[in-house]
C-alpha cells in the first residue's frame, strides 16, 4: 500500500506561494530562525577549532622543537606530521612550522616531504570527530562516519602508494625543486579568519611567528613570549599563569564550545536541508564529478581550511543530503585547495626551499587524485573501507573510537618504537626484527581468520547482537519515559 505525504511533513518550504498568508509567514520565520541558528553554530564551531589549535600550541610551547627534531627519519617524519596535525587540528600550522625549519636549515626539503604527507592524514581527524554529533541516530551516524572517514581512507591509500615511491625515487622532491624559482608572489588572507578574528583576539591572541621561530631554533625559548593579547595576557605577563596553563584553560573552553556547536549545527541543518533544498543540492552535485573537485578546491581556497569544508559536509551526509559518491570528489578538491593556499603563502617568503615544500604538498595531492579518482575500480577499496567502518560503528560505536585510537595513537607508537629499536644496539635491532615478524604474522593471521575461517560471519553476527542490545535498551528507556 502506498502512502502520500503532505508538503508540510516532507518539505517545510514546499508550495510556499500557494500557502495561506499565516502559513507563509510562519515558514519564512522558520527558515530565518534556523538559518541564523545554523550560522551562529557554524561560527562557534570555527571559533572552537581555532581555539583548540592555538591552545594546544601553547601547551606544547618549547617542546615542539624537540618533536620535529626527530624528523630526520622518514617514518618518524610521517608520524610527526600526522600526530601533530591531528593534535593541533591544523595542517597549515604544521606546514608553516616545517617551512620555517627548512628555511632555517633545520630540515632539508627531502626530510619535509614525509611530514607534509603525515599532515594530510592528521587533518582528517576533525571530520571524523564531527560525525559523533549524530551518534544518537544509528542511520545518521552510519552515513556521517562513512563520510567523515572517506577523507581518512583516501589519504591513507595515497600515502601507502606514494610514501615508498618517494623514499626510493624522490619524485615529489625532484619535481618541486625543478619547478622552484621566482620571487615573491601574492598573499591571500582567509575571509573566514577575518570574520572570526575580531572576537577571537579578545579571548586569545597567540604569536605564531614566535612559536615557529622557537621551533626553527631562530628564537631562544627563554626569550619567547607566546601571547600578544587576549584576556589572559596580563596574567601571562605578570607570571600568574604560564602559557601551558592558559593553553589548558582554553582547551577546556574549546572542547565545550565544539561539542555544543556541533549538536546545534546538526539539529538546524536537519530542519533546513530537506525537501526542495535537498533536491537542489542533489541536482547540483550530480552534474559532474570533476566539476565537484573544482568546487571543493575553490571553496577550500576561499576559506583556507580543508577541515572546515569536510567537517561541514559530514553532518550533511549523515542527514542524507549528499551521498558518499558526491562527497568524495569534494574531499579530493578540498585537499587540492588547501595546498594552493599554502603555495601562495610560501611564495610571499621568496625562499626557494619554502616554495619547494609547498610544491611537494601540492603534487602529492595531485598524484593522489590521479591515482584514486579517474578509474572507478581504484575508488572501490576507499568506499568499501569507509562504508564498512560506518556500518560497524553504527552498531558498536566503540569501533570508531578504536579506529581513531589505532590510527593516531597505536600506529605512531609502534612505528616510532620500531624506528628507535632499529637505530639502537645489536640487541635492540634483534628485538625490532622479532617484533616486526610478530606484527606481520599477527596481521596475516587476522586476515586469514576473517577471510577463510568464517571470521567475517562471526564479526557481522557480533555487530547484529550489539545492535539488538541497543534496540532493547532504547525500547526500555522509551517505555520508562512513557
Automatic annotation (TrEMBL):
It is a multi-pass membrane protein. The lineage of its organism: Eukaryota, Sar, Stramenopiles, Oomycota, Saprolegniomycetes. The keyword RNA-binding does not apply. It comes from Saprolegnia parasitica (strain CBS 223.65). NCBIfam families: Na_Pi_symport. It is found in: Cell membrane. Keywords: Cell membrane, Membrane, Transmembrane, Transmembrane helix. GO terms for molecular function: sodium:phosphate symporter activity. This is Sodium-dependent phosphate transporter. Belongs to the SLC34A transporter family. It comes from the Eukaryota.
Amino acid at each position: 500500500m502506498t502512502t502520500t505525504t503532505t508538503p508540510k511533513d516532507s518539505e517545510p518550504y514546499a508550495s510556499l506561494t500557494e500557502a495561506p498568508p499565516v502559513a507563509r509567514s510562519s515558514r519564512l520565520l522558520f527558515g530565518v530562525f534556523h538559518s541564523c541558528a545554523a550560522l551562529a553554530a557554524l561560527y562557534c564551531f570555527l571559533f572552537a577549532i581555532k581555539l583548540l589549535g592555538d591552545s594546544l600550541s601553547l601547551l606544547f610551547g618549547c617542546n615542539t622543537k624537540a618533536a620535529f627534531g626527530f624528523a630526520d627519519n622518514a617514518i618518524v617524519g610521517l608520524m610527526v606530521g600526522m600526530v601533530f596535525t591531528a593534535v593541533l587540528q591544523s595542517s597549515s600550522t604544521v606546514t608553516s612550522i616545517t617551512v620555517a625549519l627548512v628555511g632555517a636549515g633545520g630540515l632539508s626539503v627531502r626530510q619535509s616531504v614525509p611530514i607534509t604527507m603525515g599532515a594530510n592524514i592528521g587533518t582528517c581527524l576533525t571530520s571524523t570527530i564531527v560525525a559523533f554529533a549524530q551518534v544518537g541516530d544509528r542511520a545518521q551516524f552510519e552515513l556521517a562516519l562513512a563520510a567523515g572517514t572517506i577523507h581518512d581512507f583516501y589519504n591513507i591509500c595515497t600515502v601507502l602508494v606514494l610514501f615508498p615511491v618517494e623514499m626510493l625515487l624522490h619524485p615529489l622532491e625532484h619535481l618541486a625543486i625543478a619547478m622552484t624559482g621566482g620571487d615573491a608572489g601574492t598573499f591571500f588572507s582567509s575571509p573566514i579568519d577575518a570574520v572570526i578574528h575580531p572576537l577571537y583576539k579578545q579571548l586569545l591572541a597567540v604569536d605564531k611567528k614566535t612559536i615557529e621561530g622557537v621551533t626553527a631554533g631562530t628564537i631562544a625559548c627563554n626569550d619567547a613570549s607566546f601571547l600578544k593579547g587576549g584576556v589572559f595576557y596580563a596574567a601571562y605577563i605578570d607570571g600568574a599563569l604560564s602559557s601551558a596553563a592558559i593553553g589548558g584553560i582554553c582547551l577546556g573552553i574549546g572542547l565545550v564550545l565544539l561539542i555544543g556547536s556541533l549538536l546545534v549545527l546538526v539539529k538546524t541543518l536537519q530542519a533546513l536541508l530537506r525537501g526542495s533544498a535537498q533536491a537542489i543540492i542533489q541536482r547540483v552535485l550530480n552534474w559532474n564529478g570533476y566539476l565537484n573537485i573544482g568546487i571543493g578546491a575553490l571553496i577550500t581556497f576561499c576559506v583556507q581550511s580543508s577541515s572546515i569544508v569536510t567537517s561541514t559536509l559530514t553532518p550533511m551526509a549523515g542527514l542524507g543530503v549528499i551521498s558518499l559518491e558526491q562527497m568524495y570528489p569534494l574531499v579530493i578538491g578540498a585537499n587540492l585547495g588547501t595546498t594552493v593556499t599554502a603555495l601562495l603563502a610560501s611564495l610571499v617568503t621568496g625562499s626557494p626551499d619554502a616554495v619547494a615544500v609547498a610544491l611537494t604538498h601540492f603534487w602529492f595531492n595531485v598524484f593522489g587524485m590521479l591515482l584514486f579518482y579517474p578509474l572507478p575500480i581504484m575508488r572501490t577499496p576507499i568506499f568499501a573501507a569507509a562504508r564498512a567502518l560506518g556500518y560497524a560503528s553504527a552498531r558498536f560505536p566503540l569501533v570508531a573510537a578504536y579506529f581513531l585510537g589505532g590510527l593516531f595513537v597505536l600506529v605512531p607508537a609502534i612505528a616510532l618504537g620500531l624506528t628507535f629499536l632499529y637505530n639502537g644496539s645489536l640487541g635492540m635491532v634483534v628485538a625490532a626484527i622479532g617484533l616486526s615478524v610478530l606484527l606481520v604474522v599477527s596481521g596475516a593471521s587476522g586476515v586469514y581468520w576473517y577471510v577463510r575461517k568464517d571470521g567475517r560471519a562471526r564479526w557481522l553476527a557480533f555487530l547484529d547482537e550489539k545492535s539488538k542490545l541497543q534496540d532493547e535498551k532504547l525500547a526500555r528507556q522509551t517505555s520508562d519515559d512513557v
